[in-house]
């Protein structure tokens, strides 16, 4: 079982992350720095990955022989023994001198390092996360250990370091051979379990007229057209105000966790009453988590005047959820099997878009054309300059544009840029991420 060490300076949230991954409050957590002194080990789990994980004392500069120096030795020993090191910084505080110093120590170790920018919720956290590029430890993963955000990206980063169960299965869990992870979510009684049974071809899930039969998120390994699929049926998600029962709260948390670990999420709607407020809340959650998104209009066998209904639903989708404009919407019936194959084709297409990368050259040709046709508006008589663009990652497509005074860009212009990316590079429905940065040298006019 792989050994993962969580390291970083004091008070960056290492113990909170440790507790999140072991699923228990094993490590003491407090706002005061230096609570953790000894290495604490537990068995962690992230999706279908299991591992030993070690929480360590915060790395500090200290005199030889002192308590802090002995604590640091314990941490250095954990780094030496680890198969993977999670180097954690506080995104809200940005990169500190201690972070830079200890990044050099971690870089010299033989173990692979994954850089985590913790406490990355909110604008301040996201900005600090981008500063972490300067540490030279690869792309930082923005996470929030306290809120459980960003764990899907951590799963993807960890997966290559896990041994496969047998030689026959080599390379099947990563890369092109990995199972496609699909979560089916929606309001209670939208027909999720009936759809899952229809997809896998057996009565795998309990179904019935009562809402809320499914409580746990159930994972089913399956194959579609030769492609391995891990299908997750989830509990129905009601409005938060109506979730009172403790068991239902656990079921909802489990469903939300399934969204975080999915690659594609099918939001299943009841075609007779689609796009209620809760449907929109669920879709917005999926988009904020950055998952690929497909809408399934279930119970289509009960709909009359289907052409008019589809036109009406398509217009409603683009109007109510502009952040996933162009997302695929498939009419289907889990009861009769109509449209189920089209749904899986849409899922595969959405997954391809979600993984799409655009070359830097193509991006900058696009940006040059945008600036010629529609330059950013001047603010207080001063021009906003956008210099160059790049795509540091996919899953979902994530773009960074460098320039000056970018914090003053109006929201309308940012939406214009996102829509331009979506249309130019054929990314319908993708939850595109776009952020802006100022070059390190404010006098740099290159690019």
From TrEMBL:
Annotated GO MF terms: GTP binding
Record keywords, A-Z: GTP-binding, Nucleotide-binding, Repeat, Ribosome biogenesis
Quaternary structure (record): Associates with the 50S ribosomal subunit.
GO BP annotations listed: ribosome biogenesis
Binding-site residues, GTP 1: 8-15, 55-59, 118-121
InterPro entries: G_ENGA (IPR031166), GTP-bd (IPR006073), GTPase_Der (IPR016484), KH_dom-like (IPR032859), KH_dom-like_a/b (IPR015946), P-loop_NTPase (IPR027417), Small_GTP-bd (IPR005225)
Residues in the signal sequence: none
Residues that bind GTP 2: 186-193, 233-237, 298-301
Protein task: GTPase that plays an essential role in the late steps of ribosome biogenesis.
Keyword GTP-binding: yes
Name recorded for this polypeptide: GTPase Der
Pfam families given in the database record: KH_dom-like (PF14714), MMR_HSR1 (PF01926)
